Task: structure prediction
Amino acid sequence: PVAKKRIVLLAARNCQTYVELPNQQLQSIAGQHGWDVATPIVRNQEDVSSERNWTLSSVQALAESLSCAKGEGYVCCDKNFNRLKVKSKSYVAASNLPRPNWGLPIDSKSATRQVKELMAQSLEQTTYGSKANHENLLRLILNGEKDEFQIYFPEWAMPFQRMSERVEALVSKMADASVAIKHQGITGGVACKDSKIYTSLNQLQKYLQKNKTE
Result:
């Protein structure tokens, strides 16, 4: 969802002393490689020391209002140079939209609205919503993005849990099928043949016994 791809230098350190260099020296380093330099956020542009007054909650509030079209979020750094990335909620939403929607102009409010519409309009206790919602939940789980997405959208915890349970059950069933195939002395097997999907281990075993081919 970012209009321009770029590399931004956040920090640099002396490899002998391991001391981080002041922000003023980063510009020359970045210039040698054609990179941009991250600009520290200060409350008062005339008093750079005021940046020390930032708290995690204040940065989170700032990230909440940041449009995904302007950036991914902010990187917090303490006096010991420990860093924490605080992402814009709209960026998390926009980056998880289905790829065909990535070309759309997305701002902070519409990204959150779009992702909610695409993920699920009404996820009931006994349903997983539409096919599109089902696929979006599954895609986030398989890509390992479930935990991060839930941090910014905790209301989707229950749908994710239900979908995760289904995925884990399927993986377990596939493992059982793999063992069954191995014991049959067959080098390979498939769970789909002639557009028919074998949804149970028994069905797959019957197919393998009847057809000693892959």
The chain has three domains: 8-87, 92-164, 171-210.
